[in-house]
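Quick one: RecF/RecN/SMC N-terminal domain-containing protein from Gigaspora rosea, structure tokens please.
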Amino acid sequence: KGRNFRTFISVRARIQFSYQLSKRGYTGKLLFDHHNKKLNLRNTDKDPKSLSVGEKSFSTICLLLALWEAMGCPIRCLDEFDVFMDAVNRRISMHMMIETTREADCTQYILITPQDASNVSPGLGVRVHHLQDPERGQGILNQ
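--- reply ---
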């Protein structure tokens, strides 16, 4: 029973990973090695060592979205997921995350970023809370 469940999750994650990558015109695979407890990512367009930091971060977002889609969870949180992304990959990744949140009826998402989120439009099911930048040497948070 456990193997069937693991296989089901693996297949769903592989399909979702390929789908998420295709949104940027990339192709890739998730390779599960359950026996050795390893997961490998393959971007078939490029050697992984030649990927930019932004492309690696984008691939990581695709992996997260794929795993989230493959397994149900009522609350999903990410902190500083876009910190190493360039502006283009940040905008695209943020758009993908927001679209994913809109498609998930019974899941709450909390996305925390120190980056500018002005390109995220509040709307049905989406709230943006902007906190003031901290002051240097500030010992207590302002209320």
